[in-house]
Design brief:
Length: 305
């Protein structure tokens, strides 16, 4: 069965070469009303993916470069006194958009990082005691550099938990890299990328996620996976109820992308590493070991109880 989202996936694949799985994960994250963390070395296409996703879906897009001297007001906005009217007026910050690329989020201080918490959880920001709603849908794509690089501040566990998924793009395969060398400039391709949807259609797709059926067998599989993370000595702490709900919504979104109105265990397996790894470990150190542990988790839990 062909997914209604396939034209969007094809469009993204034309710009981001050889990364179909990561593209589908990013789209699933948006459909599930989550937020996405992309961790990788500079120059891997993180910014290109974020902008291409926003353009393909016809969404407002803002890029915000995080630096060590950034303040929360640089994200949320600031109240400025208007002498003519003798009152303060609020000037919206770049967070008032539908897709916000928080570039190199771990290069700013934890205080500034925390300015995103309310926005990511509630879809609103509070400044000077006034709460303001953000445009909908609201989707944060944050990028972070590996923690061993200079000038980085590790994201606290509470911040990591607000991201539905964490993915890596990695180096392109030789065929994709050759096409990058011989093909069109990616920035030029982005400038003419057509909008294949709009806010209304995306909202309808997001609403359909709740209609993706989860059988008792799949629900039991989800619970047994999560229970194993809480009981296993391999993990410092297991997945929380919020982590379980994130895994459920990501599973439903992946099933929708695959063109089905019901989820199967393979959908769970497809999204588990991206949903679970950053929650099972508060640090981003030794990712290869964590990926190995999540692979072992899938092997340890039978699909059928």
């Amino acid at each position: 069965m062909t997914s209604a989202l396939q034209p969007v996936i094809n469009s993204l694949n034309s710009v981001i070469l050889g990364k179909q799985n990561q593209i589908k994960l990013a789209l699933a994250c948006l459909l599930a009303k989550g937020h996405l963390l992309i961790e990788d070395l500079p120059g891997m296409g993180k910014t290109t993916l974020a902008e291409a996703l926003a353009r393909s879906l016809g969404l407002q897009y803002q890029r915000l470069q995080f630096t060590s001297d950034m303040l929360p007001a640089d994200i949320i906005g600031v109240s400025i006194f208007n002498p003519a009217e003798q009152q303060f007026s609020f000037r919206e910050g770049p967070i008032f958009t539908q897709v916000l690329l928080a570039d190199e989020i771990n290069r700013t201080s934890p205080k500034t990082q925390s300015a995103l918490l309310e926005a990511m959880e509630e879809g609103q920001v509070t400044s000077d005691g006034v709460t303001r709603r953000l445009p909908q849908p609201f989707f944060v794509i944050a990028t972070q550099n590996p923690s061993h690089q200079m000038g980085t501040f590790p994201l606290p566990e509470s911040q990591l938990d607000r991201f539905l998924m964490r993915i890596q793009l990695g180096y392109p395969d030789p065929r994709a890299e050759r096409e990058l060398l011989t093909g069109k400039d990616r920035r030029q391709m982005l400038s003419v990328l057509p909008a294949l949807a709009d806010t209304e259609r995306l909202s309808a797709w997001q609403a359909q996620i709740n209609e993706i059926h989860l059988s008792d067998a799949v629900l039991s599989y989800l619970q047994r996976l999560v229970t194993h993370t809480r009981q296993s000595r391999d993990f410092a702490h297991g997945l929380s109820p919020r982590g379980l709900l994130a895994l459920k919504r990501a599973t439903q979104a992946w099933a929708m992308i695959e063109g089905r109105n019901y989820a199967i265990p393979e959908d769970v397996q497809a999204v588990l590493p991206s949903v679970a790894e950053h929650r099972l470990r508060g640090s981003i150190e030794d990712q290869s070991r964590m990926h190995s542990l999540t692979s072992q988790l899938l092997s340890a839990i039978d699909v059928i109880e």
